[in-house]
């Protein structure tokens, strides 16, 4: 974006439009209805990774806001639209049967996780945090709620993130181990099955936001899984506009969310106590490792440091990884070269229609 566009308020940008440098320019914006882009004439400074040099193939792009999954699917099947996002698991078979191509890629960055507030008395105990990690059956979550091909989390980073480290042996479903950890931490089952310690129930509130269709179903399933080991979870729906305020206030037990970024330095942004530290981690060796990886110019050495950071986060269960967010598209057979870029956003410069 140009400096002048950056200087405007969000309200001014929505009203006046923006000036950018991409191969498409904003033509029209109708709040909650559509966004129209047009091809930039004489464009010739695109990425060397793109197949087409110069201007894009398509003259116009129209993004339509269609909240209902069934309407999106029907619109694609009838040819009213050329591609749809947020494909639901229940619609996959019908789309495939109609000749639609399903394209998917896991979003890089921090996976969908329970972000635990490490300053809460209950969650200051590493054994409690680890028990939560082992009590979640990620495979059941994926197979029940998410689109086909979605992967359970095997680290705090998704596998599409550079320097991702496979820590699946430390991100296991092991209910017996979870119960043993809670036993050793002094939490004993009560008459209703919920554990107690010194008269205090093992109860946590998870704040969640309405920014993904799978959030509610996922958390309700996790709620059942944690109850099976004696942890009571209360789900509290919040508006997405409140997320920053809630994080800054620290007035929460756990937050549900993810953060897409195609660079492992997202770990420093999220979990260094020298930065936002939304989850109130205490100062530890992790701070040093995160700072070192950001300053390390040697790729091999940096990869080793990023791996170490992932291990520290998972082993200490500062947060609890659950599932990789996957971007899945339904694409008409008449659409070609619609692809994903590094952050799993769609890349449309090379796209064309037959």
Would you kindly provide a written description of the structure presented here, covering whatever features stand out?
The protein is an alpha+beta fold and 354 residues long. It folds into 2 domains: 3-105 and 327-353, Periplasmic binding protein-like II (D-Maltodextrin-Binding Protein, domain 2); 109-324, Dipeptide-binding Protein, domain 3, CATH 3.10.105. The protein is 31% helix and 23% strand. The chain contains 12 helices and 18 strands. It has helices at residues 3-7, 10-16, 69-77, 92-97, 126-135, 138-145, 175-184, 215-227, 243-249, 266-271, 285-295, 299-315; strands at residues 24-30, 34-39, 60-64, 83-84, 101-106, 109-116, 188-189, 195-197, 200-201, 203-209, 232-238, 254-260, 319-323, 326-331, 335-336, 339-340, 346-347, 352-353. A hairpin with a 2-residue loop joins strand 8 and strand 9 (200-201). The model has no long low-confidence stretch (mean pLDDT 95).
For the record, what CATH class of the largest domain applies?
Alpha Beta
The share of residues in extended strands comes to 15-25%
Quick one: biggest sheet? 5 strands, mixed
Structural class: alpha+beta
Q: What's the helix-strand series? A: HHEEEHEHEEHHHEEEEHEHEHHHEEEEEE
Euclidean distance between termini CA atoms:
32 Å
Q: Which stretches of 5+ consecutive residues score pLDDT under 50?
A: none
Instruction: Count the E strands.
Output: 18
Q: What is the approximate shape?
A: globular
Number of domains: 2
Mean pLDDT value = 95
CATH topology of the largest domain: Dipeptide-binding Protein, domain 3
CATH architecture of the largest domain: Roll
Q: Helix count?
A: 12
What is the CATH superfamily label of the largest domain? Dipeptide-binding Protein, Domain 3
Biggest sheet, strands in spatial order?
11-10-12-6-13
Helix proportion: 25-40%
Report the C-alpha radius of gyration, rounded: 22 Å
